[in-house]
Specification:
By secondary structure, this protein is an all-beta fold. Helices cover 3% and strands 45% of the residues.
Length: 329
């Protein structure tokens, strides 16, 4: 099996240096990985141009995206890039002043782009030419109540703490939904009286496959929600699968469903950070936060880990998206 994996390379740090999480990475990367031979190829090695980032202490990495056929939609913290695979020819680019700490992009049913501007607690719809179409405050109300249309937020290093931290935007039957990390739910933006809880975990990213919606939580759970009833069907705690209880697997972000019970999941090494809220769950719930950034293949039925691949050996220090490469026809 071959995968595309998005993430980034960590900056070199001095011994004992503790950097803020928003300045840790200096190259956005997309890796092509053969999970059997473990051979890899760096498909994209990218740095955000100066006009679309802060002047100092900025971080560059690829976050979550969408592989639609052979078109890959992917975002950095301040940009949306569109590539045609497998050659990764650039097919589109959008960067708007309201883009800050982007986490996910996907194409809408009408061909526009849906982008989570996490730093503004907002979802933005824009054309592929970069024309803003709609914005939603994921907490309701005026999207610009807390922020200014006159500020270029690409130049702002961070707006944390966020009030909602939207992560993953998706579509169900013509409606637009988004996950909200701190509310631990998914909200329908186009029909805001609709929402569903995803349990007690802080959810991050997801994938809609068949009759199910799959989510990860940053703490290490994989959660399956029934698309019809919008109820949780199962939740599997990966920290208890083939590992010592209490082990930190890493920041759990990125999933790729292979079948109804086989799933690749991404984990990023937990590092010291100046932003303390991100380490509270490690301090109070886990120990030994030293595993490298890696992906793992799980059998959810037998609750076994079938394979683990260290991504740091392949030049990725953070992982966000995992895509199964479609076969050549």
């Amino acid at each position: 099996m071959e995968l595309y994996i998005s993430g980034g390379r960590q900056r070199r740090q001095l011994a004992g240096e503790v950097a803020p999480e928003w300045s840790l990475y200096d190259r956005a990367r997309i890796l092509r990985l053969d999970t059997e031979s473990l051979r890899s190829q760096l498909m994209v090695d990218y740095e955000t141009p100066p006009e679309a980032r802060a002047d100092e202490d900025y971080s560059v990495l690829f976050k979550q995206g969408t592989l639609d056929g052979r078109t890959l939609y992917i975002c950095t913290s301040t940009e949306v890039l569109i590539f045609q695979t497998p050659e990764f020819a650039r097919a589109g680019y959008v960067s708007l002043p309201c883009f800050n700490d982007l986490h996910h992009v996907c194409p809408s049913a009408t061909g526009s782009l849906l982008v989570t501007s996490t730093g503004l607690d907002m979802v933005v719809e824009c054309s592929r030419a970069g024309e803003p179409l709609r914005q939603w405050n994921v907490l309701g109300g005026d999207p610009w109540e807390r922020f200014s249309k006159n500020v270029d937020y690409r130049k702002v290093l961070t707006t944390k703490p966020h009030k909602s931290h939207p992560n993953f935007v998706f579509q169900l039957d013509g409606e637009i939904w988004v996950t909200r990390a701190w509310q631990k739910d998914a909200l329908c933006l186009t029909c805001p009286e609709r929402r569903f809880s995803v349990g007690a975990e802080t959810i991050h990213d997801g994938e809609v496959v068949g009759n199910s919606i799959w989510f990860t939580s940053v703490h290490g759970q994989v959660i399956e929600v029934d698309r019809g009833s919008l109820q949780v069907k199962r939740a599997v705690d990966l920290t208890g699968v083939d590992s010592t209880p209490g082990t930190v697997l890493g920041w759990c972000r990125g999933l790729c469903l292979v079948s109804d019970h086989l799933i690749w999941v991404g984990f990023t090494r937990v590092r010291k950070t100046k932003f303390r809220e991100n380490l509270l769950w490690v301090k109070h719930r886990f120990r030994n936060p030293d595993l490298p950034t890696h992906i793992a293949l799980y059998d959810l039925e037998s609750r076994k880990c079938l394979q683990e691949i260290d991504l740091e050996e392949h030049g990725l220090n953070v992982v966000f998206s995992i895509f199964q490469i479609p076969p050549v026809t």
